[in-house]
Amino acid sequence: MTAPVLEVKNLEKYFDTNTGWFENKPPVKAVDGISLTVDEGETLALIGESGSGKSTVAETIINIHEATGGLIRYQGEDITNPLKEQLETIRSDIQLVFQDPTSCLNPRRTIEKSLRVPLKATGVAKDKRNQRVQEMLERVGLTDEYLYKYPHELSGGQKQRVNIARALAVEPRLLLLDEPTSALDVSVQAKIIDLLRDLQEELDLTYLFITHDLSVVRNFADETAVMYLGEIQEKGPTEEIFQSPKHPYTRALLSSIPVTSDSDEEYRPDSEPLRGEVPSPREAPSGCRLHPRCPHATEECSMQHPDTQQVDDVEVQCIAYKEESEGFESLLTATNDTSTESQ
Ligand SMILES: Nc1ncnc2c1ncn2[C@@H]1O[C@H](COP(=O)(O)OP(=O)(O)O)[C@@H](O)[C@H]1O
Ligand SMILES: [Mg+2]
């Protein structure tokens, strides 16, 4: 059996933001012990509200940040603290596509030049570069007429196509897509998703797809991991997560997907909304990190950190979820009853 393309074990990224010896602020625990696996040619969606730590996961995988704990393996090889030659492999095999298509393109470079730079950097022969630039542009659905344009002459969707072409220039195996459509108009988002899907099939790419837009996840991702305040709360096959979400956080996220068609109704779970806002990961709540916002929280949830339970193919990190008590339907009633009594 071949090793997964990406394997992350108990990954931690704590940011120390103290600027002098006199400061003693606790670290920002942006990523706090997460584990993920992505097999070849598959897509894992990493979802969760803003501030959950999703971008930090991707940036730590690609070594923009140094991991403060845990393990990252690429095709079975430990790349957590990469050696020089491993860094070269990471830089060509793993590519990160950012949310904002504008900030990644040099405004003073034509598209042709922007696409040529990574080819030069990875040693593609000079006489092959022209052809490769044209191929890459074509691959992302843009014609030759864009070659000598500047970024400001392109729409957001076109710029994101150029960014995807640039990422593909070095023939990567794994794309870390960090909210690749969030900055685009809704009509353009679907086209970029279609493009990513086609490219995955043509080039047998593996994706870590970060998003807080859940409406695309169900049809796009094989597996889904739900992240909150640096931890994974629920993880498993996308279909199972959407059909019967178990964690109160997942339930709340899924219940807030805007209704766009009748079929969407099918998988919208009943859920009470979460209370309040996401706290700072510098002062993450004790026990279960969700407990101050969770409609199902018990006293135990505020004191004890939840273990991960395996329910069929899904891992769920919640104390209040009990499979034998049919999840939360019964619990929901119980919680409501007590709250009415105490009022
Ligand atoms: N370089 C940094 N220094 C300090 N804190 C950071 C840094 N980068 C991210 N954070 C913090 O880490 C948390 C997670 O951020 P991020 O990974 O961007 O979340 P997401 O992508 O899910 O919105 C946030 O609270 C953010 O403020
Ligand atoms: Mg982010």
Shape: globular
The CATH homologous superfamily name of the largest domain equals P-loop containing nucleotide triphosphate hydrolases
How far from one another are the termini? 58 Å
β content, as a range?
Answer: 15-25%
CATH class of the largest domain: Alpha Beta
Q: How many strand segments?
A: 12
Count of the separate structural domains? 2
The fold-level CATH name of the largest domain is: Rossmann fold
Mean pLDDT: 89
Q: Classify the oligomer.
A: single chain
Q: What is the structural class?
A: alpha/beta
Strand order of the largest sheet: 6-7-8-3-9-10-12-11
What string, H for helix and E for strand, traces the elements in order?
EEEHEEHEHHHEHEHEEHHHHEEH
Helix content: 25-40%
How would a crystallographer describe the biggest sheet?
8 strands, mixed
Task: List low-confidence stretches.
Answer: 329-343
CATH architecture of the largest domain: 3-Layer(aba) Sandwich
Region (Disordered): 258-291
Biased composition (Basic and acidic residues): 266-275
Protein name: Peptide ABC transporter ATP-binding protein
Domain ABC transporter: 6-254
